[in-house]
Amino acid sequence: MNKWNVFLLGLATSLTHAEVNNSHAILALNETQNSSVMEKKTETILPHQAATLLADKQAVILDVREESEWKQKHIPGAIHIPLGQLKNRLSELEQYKQTPLITQCRTGRRSLQALKALKSVGFSKVYNLEGGIVAWEKALLETQ
Q: Fewer CB within 10 A of the terminal residue: the chain, N end or C end?
């Protein structure tokens, strides 16, 4: 019985450390006086964090889904460039090269490819919307 208690205590401690490390792995927003400051922990951002940055005009969202997906619903204010067209339309994003740019698709796979492509051509502040528009909607954030 005593060995089980030690085992369970060790397991609980490990899980707690994993939760703490997981929370540090997501892009954090720290409030400072009147503005939000982004601290890059990974290249991922949660929907509510992205919505706050978008509303405060501190970031731009790039939707890389196909035209038919965009027409069904999209995040208001997002820029739409399908992933397959990104390479040929980079000039449209040049003005955002030093701006936090949040890539977004349906669930996060295509937008991760876009993130990697943008970083490879010099975009320094690129983040992937975790869970894509599916997570955005689950968070009850606005689409049009």
A: N
Residue 105 annotated as catalytic: yes
Integer angstrom CA distances of residue 144 from 56, 61, 70, 106, 109: 19, 14, 9, 15, 22
Give the angle 97-63-75 at the CA atoms, nearest 5°: 115
SS3 content of the chain, % helix, strand, coil (to 5): 50, 20, 35
- What's the pLDDT score for residue 42? 56
User: pLDDT by residue (tens digit) across 95-113?
Assistant: 999 899 999 999 999 999 9
How many beta carbons lie within 10 A of that of residue 103, not counting itself?
Answer: 29
H or E segment at 104? strand 101-104
CATH number for the domain that contains residue 81: 3.40.250.10
Q: Which residue has the higher pLDDT, 29 or 136?
A: 136
Q: pTM for the complete prediction?
A: 0.71
**Residue 11 included in any domain:** no
Selected catalytic residue, list 102, 105, 112, 129 = 105
Kindly report the number of other CB atoms within 10 A of residue 85's CB atom: 14
